[in-house]
Amino acid sequence: MGYIVKRVAVLGTTGSIGRQTLEVIDALPGHFSVIGLAGGRNTTLLAEQIEKFQPRFVFHQETKTPPPTTAEYEFLPMEEMARHPEIDLVVIATSGKWGLGPTLAAVRAGKQVALANKESLVMAGGIITAEAKRNGAQIMPVDSEHSAIWQCLEGESGKPSKIILTASGGPFLHYSKAKLAKVTPEQALKHPSWRMGNKVTIDSATLMNKGLEVIEARWLFDIHFDNIRVLIHPQSIVHSMVEFADGSVKAQLGKPDMRLPIQYALSYPERLANPHLPRLDWENIKELTFEPPDLDAFPCLRIAVEAGKRGGTYPAALCGADEIAVQQFLAGKIKFTDIPRLVEQALGEHKAISRPPLEQILAADDWARDKVMQLVGDKS
Amino acid sequence: MGYIVKRVAVLGTTGSIGRQTLEVIDALPGHFSVIGLAGGRNTTLLAEQIEKFQPRFVFHQETKTPPPTTAEYEFLPMEEMARHPEIDLVVIATSGKWGLGPTLAAVRAGKQVALANKESLVMAGGIITAEAKRNGAQIMPVDSEHSAIWQCLEGESGKPSKIILTASGGPFLHYSKAKLAKVTPEQALKHPSWRMGNKVTIDSATLMNKGLEVIEARWLFDIHFDNIRVLIHPQSIVHSMVEFADGSVKAQLGKPDMRLPIQYALSYPERLANPHLPRLDWENIKELTFEPPDLDAFPCLRIAVEAGKRGGTYPAALCGADEIAVQQFLAGKIKFTDIPRLVEQALGEHKAISRPPLEQILAADDWARDKVMQLVGDKS
């Protein structure tokens, strides 16, 4: 049997997911051809990646110095790369709202879209899933939780009756509110099980990340919020579960390593043997534990789900507010427990619009960023 | 959308699996039509089932009194029922080697075969899977473990790299050999999590059942013995797991209730909502634990896998020897720890034939029964 070489563009190659995507592609020679790379401010790393993968198209942020390489490439904006006819699969690993434009361009062009950018679905899930459906695009989640659900749904003809998103609980599991008020950015950046970027690591510590994932799941799997449940599972072995009409539950398990969900999205519907991927070692897994989240100590999960249920521009405002609150916490300007407080306060003042077009979604995000900055300023 | 009413024959209706099969059918009106029922010695129960389901065909063991009912039916031998053109799906829930003939008849007639009879695949897995392939029959496992694996494999294009069969460990988990020598049939019949017949309950207590399941898995999923692993999981929530080429693992979970795997085989590829089926209650599941089996205290697992690996008539001799040993234990004639001793001794004296036809498989079973009776007689 022959196999298809997929022509891939990776947007956000210098971030954590981007780098791991290229690791996976490198470990599976002959399966993928890297046609496009879009990097961020780390032009030294981008230059190395360009030299290694020799892409035809490159996007780099307009800094004074382009990537220091003599390799030849064509400069192409991210959205054009995302819809280019010579690209089959677009990996969207750009962070924040910068992922929205390329995601929309890729789904409108009917691509296979390996989506690691949370904001696309959280802020504009309605628009993006509708466009994907209309244009025959396939959105393939790269998150470990949504990848788990996707894997569990493969081959099932019916809809899930329930989705159970697992959460490690982060570094502060079982902390009291008083103790949480004193945690430092250094402590918050030490995630017990996952290797991820800074923003998502803090979001994991507040459980905001799980709230954003609930909203993503609502769009990815067309399921009502009431049928999505979050369970704390500190071992991060069960990546999520699905309950079906007959009461049967399927779970996907694996070592906590982002390369596994990345590879599944790249190789789908096939699974490829990759000697670099870790395997579960049942000699050392004694127990898997589960418990409900503490919504009182970690209100971000509740706040996010409420914003998701309200819909309209609320989730966009949630994203913008959280991004600035996390920045301010990392900069030592606010306490860990100020993150939910500021986000909730901003959302309380937000004048939402229902069924917003993209411009208004982005405007809501901007508004919330300003609002949190203003709230922080008022306080200090 | 319309749906198909499946025409079903249930063989072994008065046993535990047979009764639960009829419970499931009764709970899903309009989905199944019971065309045939084959019962055992409990003619009173069989008569009730005949009156309730009004089957066209009935088989009952030739006792002096036929089932006490005035309902009209046509008497039909089990093998004829299994291949009857008006039947789509045959549930084989007869116990012991009596399942072999009907299973073979059903697969030769290209039926959907919901297989609860362990001996069919353990004793004659090579013949039965080859005939199923040749005639386009589909063997659908009814065991919770194999159903779990089957569910995890749905929609997967590649072969599993590993199968992890879970085992509750039975009522004597962590018992020493010395303590096991003193257990009574009453204690052994109290299974901690499953409602099953007597023979399989004792086989669960010795772990022989898990060994037989390893052999079944080898045939059902065409996988090498070395890639099948057994893990003790006392909560009986994870019914089994599959590891794929990329290291991803899928598990199927549910309350320990045989009606779930029975229903899945009946309704496949659909899943049907059934209000009588229990659902996992995550408020009360705190932990799932796993540990390797103690092959020293529970040698039946090792003995069975060895017989499976040797192949030929060894697995048939294993079944015959175990059946008599379990009978003798239940009758109070031998100790619990005599079961593996007698089975191993019989297998040690067995003169096996490779690639045996069905007659020789049945002859090996007979030989082993006589051998164990003789060994028990010699001792007492």
Would you kindly provide a brief summary of this structure?
The structure is a homodimer of 380-residue chains. Chain A is α/β, with parallel strands linked by helices and 380 residues long.
Please characterize this protein's 3D structure.
- The structure is a homodimer of 380-residue chains.
- Chain A is α/β, with parallel strands linked by helices and 380 residues long.
- Chain A has 3 domains: 6-141, NAD(P)-binding Rossmann-like Domain (Rossmann fold, 3-Layer(aba) Sandwich), CATH 3.40.50; 144-257 and 278-294, no CATH class; 311-380, Orthogonal Bundle (Rna Polymerase Sigma Factor, Chain: A).
- In chain A, 44% of the residues lie in helices and 14% in strands.
- Chain A has helices at 16-27, 43-53, 78-83, 100-108, 118-135, 144-153, 177-180, 185-188, 198-206, 208-220, 259-267, 299-310, 314-330, 338-349, 358-379; strands at 6-11, 32-38, 57-59, 74-75, 89-92, 112-115, 138-141, 162-167, 228-232, 238-243, 249-253, 287-289.
- In chain A, the strands form 2 sheets. The first copy, chain A, has a 7-stranded parallel sheet, sandwiched between helices.
- In chain A, helix 5 runs antiparallel to helix 13, helix 13 (314-330) packs antiparallel against helix 14 (338-349) and helix 14 (338-349) crosses helix 15 (358-379).
- Chains A and B meet through strand 10, strand 11, helix 11 and strand 12 of A and strand 10, strand 11, helix 11 and strand 12 of B.
- Strand 11 (249-253) of chain A pairs antiparallel with strand 11 of chain B.
